[in-house]
Amino acid sequence: MELPAIIRPAGTGDDEEQSDLLVEALLENDLRRDLDPLARARGHQRLIDTGLTVKGVAERLQTTQARVREHLRILKLPEELQGKFASGEIPVRAVKPLGQLAGIHPGLAIAAAQQVLDPGEAYEPYAWVDVEGAPLELALAGGELPEGVYRPHTAYPIGAFALGEGASKDLAAIERMLGRAVEHIQFDASDIAQVRALGAAYGENWHTVIVGNDVAAQLVADYLARSVKELRKRAREERKLARDTQASTNGSSASGGADDPTGLAGTGNGAAIDPEEARRAEREAERRAREDATRFNLELGRAVFTSLSRVRVDEPVLKVLASVQIVGELADVAMRGARYGFPGSVTETTQKNGKTKYVHLEKPQAEQHANDYLRGATKPGEIAGRQIALLAMATYADQDAVAVSSRSWHQVKASGPWAVEADWLLDKLVADNLPESALALLAPVLEKRKAEQTERAAARKAREEAVSRLEGIEARIGELTAEELDRAERDLDAVWSRWTPEHTRLRDGLAARRAELAASDKPADDTEPVSAEQ
Asked: Looking at the structure, do residues 307 and 451 belong to the same domain, yes or no?
């Protein structure tokens, strides 16, 4: 069988002719829709390689420059994403936001795509329109970051950074002065300002990231250098205060020696305790507790905001939300939790002495901030997730971050048919969604709550068993033994935490039966009295 064909000479094969042949092939495949986006992007690049500009490629292919640039961006993405354009898993319209992320760090583009392609069972899936609207926010939604990308207010192991000789010496000096190992370090607002000036910080507010291992290591070195100076200054002040206190004590002892032959005036039982030194030590302990609590809350808030603001709406989530009141008590809920760590709730300022000062929202502002946060939810997973996030902060935030007078004593209490489950369901939601770094921070709190839940479960079981034993006891009171009476009284204490008419009636019945038993156990006196005359 013979097929008609036109044989065209290959010509000299110069760049112009090769370009013409390539354009012809691309146009033919475009018309037949044979080219996938990746193949088309590679074809465009081959035309660029022949010396054409983007404009020239667009003119030769009779398309727009924007479309050419859009396809060329595919080739700048990580290879594992390029193939997904070829398979159609990623639409071409997502290439621009993914390209922006890849420009910051290739791993961020992969992380954002993963949120759509494989979000995991715990999350409601994102769509590509979400990637287009907030690419960096979506890349950070998974919790774990690519190597070389860091978040502020997140605890990182000190061993994760390559420290130079000077920084290592500073770290050793700090550990000697503190008397303990320095295990973790965090970046704060002052670090962000420094890195942004270097062009290594991206994003705003809670979605800010620091990019570069060398940059992060330098921040750590700078922090260690500042800390050494501060600790040495504090040590000098403490030594001076100790010398002044000792001199004052010796002077008082000398002047009081004539009237006090024992030489122990004012000492009580040993050396005199200087009130000012005691107050100073107390203030220092409070300052450290505030700093620890603030760091805890900021990392917790970042993790909760990032990981729980959007969840899969399933049975556990619905049970928790049906058991608590969030929206109706929004001001109190926000004051108890979100204001300690949610983005925009804590203002950081660097003081003249180089220390960071944290200012928390007052109640009206905290309520408005939480209200705006909830109003921003547009999908079922966001509506449910943001309430869960507010509840988590109100449950776990450490109020030692502020003075006692500024704390909220509100407690979100569960009620209804799933009240018993609500606490451990919330803990499980948190454990399933938060990144490992935040869970490590939260581990002591979760362990304590688990112990409390176990204790409450045991108390509920004991109460149920007591109720079962007390059932119909009024009809049997006349048959109870002394041992059974003791058990019944203990059961009454377990069942009723406060006095009720029924409680009183049963108590009276048990007391009457106990008196009856006591009377029956009393030995009878059958001896007749002897007459004096006998």
From this structure: yes
SS3 153: coil
Q: Torsions phi, psi of 325, nearest 5?
A: -110, 110
Q: For 53, which DSSP code?
A: -
CA distance 89 to 133: 19
CB count within 10 Å of CB 255 equals: 11
Query: Is residue 264 in a domain?
Result: no
Please state the domain count of the chain. Answer: 4
> Do 191 and 150 touch, CB atoms closer than 8 A?
no
- Write the CA distances from 460 to 300, 404, 490, integer angstroms: 31, 33, 15
Rounded average pLDDT over 265-279: 56
Compute CA 414 distance to the chain's CA centroid, rounded to the nearest angstrom: 22
Tell me the whole-structure pTM to 2 decimals.
Answer: 0.68
Query: Which amino acid, residue 250?
Result: N
Tokens matching residue 383: 């509506």
Is beta strand 149-150 parallel, antiparallel or unpaired with respect to 156-157? unpaired
Q: 206, 260 in Cβ contact below 8 A? A: no
Residue where a domain terminates, one of 99, 120, 145: 145
- Cα(366)–Cα(297) distance, rounded to whole angstroms? 15
Residue at 194: amino acid letter: Q
Q: Give the pLDDT of residue 34.
A: 62
Quote the distance between the C-alpha of residue 405 and its chain's center: 25
Domain that holds residue 218: 147-247
